[in-house]
Amino acid sequence: MLNRIELLQLIEHNARLSVAEMAVMLGDSEEAVAAMLEELKSENIILGYTTMINWEKTERESVTAMIEVRVTPQRNQGFDQLAKQLYRYSQISSCYLMSGGFDFMIIIEDSTLREVASFISEKIAPLDGVVSTTTHFILKKYKSNGILFDSKPIDDREAVIL
Amino acid sequence: MTMSIDYDKQISSVVKEMPPSAIRRFFDLANEMKGNVISLSIGEPDFVTPWRVREAGIFSLEDGNTHYSPNRGYMEVREAISSYMNRRLHLQYDAKDQILVTVGGSEGLDLVARALINPGDEVIIIEPCFVAYRATVTFSHGVPVVIETKEKDDFKLLPEDLENAITDKTKYIILAYPGNPTGATMNREELARIRDVLLKHPDIVVVSDELYTELTYTEEGPCSIASFPELYDRTIIINGFSKSFAMTGWRIGFVCGPAALVSQMTKIHQYCLMCAPTTAQYAIIEAALNGDKDVDEMKKEYNMRRRVIVNGLREAGLHCFEPTGAFYAFPNITSVGLSSNEFCERFLMEKRVAIVPGAAFGQCGEGYVRISYAASMENIVEAMRRLKDFIGEVKEGKNTNA
Q1: DSSP alpha helix (H) spans, B214-258
Q2: How many angstroms separate the most distant Cα atoms in chain A?
Q3: For testing the chain A interface, which of B134, B304, B305, B315 should be mutated: the one with the most A CBs within 10 Å?
Q4: What rounded mean pLDDT belongs to chain B?
Q5: How many Cα atoms are found within 13 Å in the side-chain-facing hemisphere of B44?
Q6: Binary contact (B307, A24; C-beta < 8 A)
Q7: Which of A18, A21, A157 to mutate: most B Cβ within 10 Å?
Q8: CA–CA separation, A124 and A115 (whole Å)
Q9: Contacts (Cβ under 8 Å, ≥6 apart) of B124
C-alpha cells in the first residue's frame, strides 16, 4: 500500500525522479504513484518543485538577508493582513510568523547589500504596523534544506569486502 | 651464508592448509581498478556512522575514558544492549551474565568456535555464506559440514537437509538469516520447522548470526530462533552494530546467550583481547539507546535501493529471487553462459562495475553473483544500465575486449 509520507519524503529529496522510478522504489504501480501525485498537488500539499543552487559559485551577484520584524497586530486581522503586505513583495522569498522577541522573520534575496538595505528602509520599515526591523546578512551558507554547500562525498572503502 | 628459518615447516598445518579465496584473482583485479569503477562489491554500509554515535565516541575521548573496561564490557553498555535487544527484538538478556561485548561480530564467531569445538567435532554451515564461518571452525580444529541451499527454496534452510546433515559429532549449527551473500531471510513459521528438527537433537547448540537482523524488509519483520522458548537456552546470538548502525570500522559487536556459555566465551575473550575498544563501547550506548530512528532511516533507503536493484536485474534479463534482508541481491547468471568468476572479471573490465563472484561463498554459490546495494542510488541505477548492456553484448557474442 502506497504511503503518501514516504512518497513525499522521496520527492522532497529528489524531485527529478520519474513516476516509473518512484514506483519501483516504493514497490507500487506507476498508476498508483501518478494518481497520488495528482492528489497531493490538488490538495496543495505539493506546492512546487525547486532546485538547490549554490549561487556563490556563479557569476550572478546575490545576497541573502534575514530580517526580524516587530509589528503591532491590527484589530480584527491579527498578523495575517500584515504578513500579506510583506510577502507580496517578490524580493521576499520566505515569511514566517515567529514566537519569541519579534513577530516575523522574512528572508530577502537580492543582488546587492544596497538594494536590500533600501528595500527595507523604503518598503518594509514605513509599513503601517511595523514597529522595528533588525537585519542580518548571511555571510556564508554551509547547509540549507539538509544539503551541504561544499562537500563531495568520498568513498574510501576497500575494493571488495566479502 | 645465514640459515633462514623454513616457515613452510613451522606454520601450523591448519593455517597452512587453509585454501586461499576462490576469487583471489578477481580480488587483485578489483584492487587494481579501485577508484575507477562503480563498486557494488562491498559488504559494508556506504553510510557513515550517524553523527550522534560518532559524537558520543568523541566525547568519551574528551572526557578521558581511555582505559580498559571490565572484560565483559562496561555494565552501562551491556544494559544498553539488553534494552536494545528487548525493545527491537523482544528478547530478554540479563546484562550481568548473558551479554559479552566483543570486537565486532567476527570475534563472536571465533569465540563460539573455540568455546565449543573439540578436535573433530562437526559444525553445520549453510552455504552460500559468509566466508568466516568455515574458517573459524577449521582454525578451531572442527570439521565444517556444509548444507547447500538452493535458489528454488529462496536459499532457506530446509528441515530435511538439516536432519540429514546431523551426526552424533554435530556440535553446533550456524544460522545466518538475513544472510550474506543471498539476502535470504527465514520467518517464524519456517524457523519453527528447524526448531522441530533441533528438538530431536537436544545437544546441538545454535549459533545465530544476526548482524543483518535490523535489515529485514518483510512485513512481519525479523525473527530470532532464540525466541522459541525451547531453544532460548540453546542459542547464542552473534550481533553487533556494524551493519545496522554503519559502524564497521569501530570493531564493536556483542553476543547474547545462556550464561554458562557466555562465561566460557568471556574466558577466551579475557585472555586474548582484555576488552572491546572503550571508545566504541561508549559510542554504542548512544546507538543502542537513542539510535532507532537512524536505523529506520537507513533501512528505508536500503529498501528502496533493493527494489531498484531487483527490478534492474530482472530488466537486464537475469533471474533473481527476491532478497528480503541484508543489502545484497544474488541473481542467477547461468543463462549468460559464463562462470561467476568470468562474469565478474569481464563485467569489471568491460563495464567498470565491480560485483562479487558467487563462488567466493561456497561451491553452491557458483552460477550466481553477489551485488551489494550498500552504494548510492545513482551508482546502482548506472550499474544496472551497464549490466543490461553487458548481458546483451555477451549474449550476442560480441567481443568488446580492447
Answers
A1: 229-232
A2: 70
A3: B304
A4: 95
A5: 20
A6: yes
A7: A157
A8: 13
A9: B145, B146, B147, B162, B165, B166, B170, B172, B173, B174
